[in-house]
Amino acid sequence: MIVDCHVNVYEDSQMLPLHTTSTAHARPGELSPRSDPDTVYAAMKDVDKAIIFSLRYKDSVGIDGDDEVTARAVAKYPDKLVGFACVDPRMPNYMDLLVHAIEDLKLKGVKFGPIYNGVSLLDPRLVPLYEYLQRNNLPLTMHMGTTYGRVAPIEYGRPLDVDAIATRYPDLKMIMAHMAHPWYEECIVVARKQPNVYCEVSALFYRPWQFYNILIAAQEYLITHRNKIFWGTDFPFSQVQESIDGLRGINKQVEGTNLPRVAQATMDYILHSNPFEHWWHGGYPG
Questions:
Q1: Beta-strand (E) ranges in 54-120?
Q2: CA 236 to CA 13: how far, in whole Å?
Q3: Tens digits of per-residue pLDDT, 101-160?
Q4: Most confident listed range (29-38, 57-66, 257-266)
Q5: Fewest CB within a 10 Å sphere: which of 93, 145, 154, 229?
């Protein structure tokens, strides 16, 4: 089984001019920004399931999404897609929107980007979110790590704040996206320490030297076989096959050296990781 745990969905009309100008520095190689429900479904043809969410990042990277587009995608392709809500804690009614997304639209978790919304994980505005998610057995995926967005405060992308929140809310399942690059060592030690914290490798393969070091560090800290690291693409910023190939071929760059290798078992474990078994207490409620 292959599950893509990190897929973005939004309509073409929800892409603002800022998105076009800022993504030129997002990654090496070509980037096709379209990510409407039909495009997402076609891109996910080689995975068994995909966790999708929209983004409320209009002032940082120019995507002004909403939960309705996520719900429409899930309703159209229910056998493939599972939807998470998006939150922007700066909005006075963000908790009302979240309750609507979960209780009316039947979304199954939450995506939040502290760096993109300019709101620290330690901000008191997030307390109702944490309490609601913990009470309702809903996971929280967080963008951790840096970004190309000029107005996004980089300090909010560092993962050490996750440690504090995980301690305060021990029943809240939290997932650090992108291994918190470039602060992957902080990500790894927090995930190792906290039983309710996980991480994932989306949008990392196209920086192969960094990705190699991330996986080696994860092996050395003994988290690669503890249901701690999950696989994803960050579509449309990465495609499925290139993400698989990037993981499978990670050792090519150290051939002919005495550098350590990413174990085949590590690659297999990550690629076939199953968030539906671990991100909800008692497993995915369906």
A1: 56-57, 63-64, 81-83, 85-86, 110-112
A2: 16
A3: 999 999 999 999 999 999 999 999 999 999 999 999 999 999 999 988 778 899 999 999
A4: 257-266
A5: 93
- What are the Cα distances from residue 18, in Å, to 24, 150, 155, 238? 11, 11, 22, 20
Contact 199, 187 (CB under 8 A): yes
**Residue at 176 is within a domain:** yes
| Contact criterion met (CB below 8 Å) for 219 and 43 | no
Dihedral, 186, 62, 131, 153 alpha carbons, nearest 10: 40
> For residue 81, what pLDDT is reported?
98
Considering the chain, what percentage of its residues have pLDDT values greater than 90? Answer: 87
Alpha helices by DSSP H, listed for the chain, are: 17-22, 37-43, 67-76, 94-99, 114-117, 127-136, 160-168, 184-193, 208-220, 240-248, 264-271
pTM of the shown model: 0.96
pLDDT of residue 31: 74
Contacts for 265 with CB less than 8 Å, ≥ 6 apart: 224, 225
- Band (pLDDT 50/70/90 cuts) for residue 197 is very high
- Count other C-beta atoms under 10 Å from residue 219's C-beta: 18
Does 284 reside within a domain? no
Per the structure, the complete domain to which residue 203 belongs is given by 3-277
User: Residue 88 belongs to a domain with what CATH number?
Assistant: 3.20.20.140
Distance CA(148)–CA(280), nearest Å, equals 31
CA angle 242, 58, 96 (to 5 degrees): 105
Structural domains in the chain (count): 1
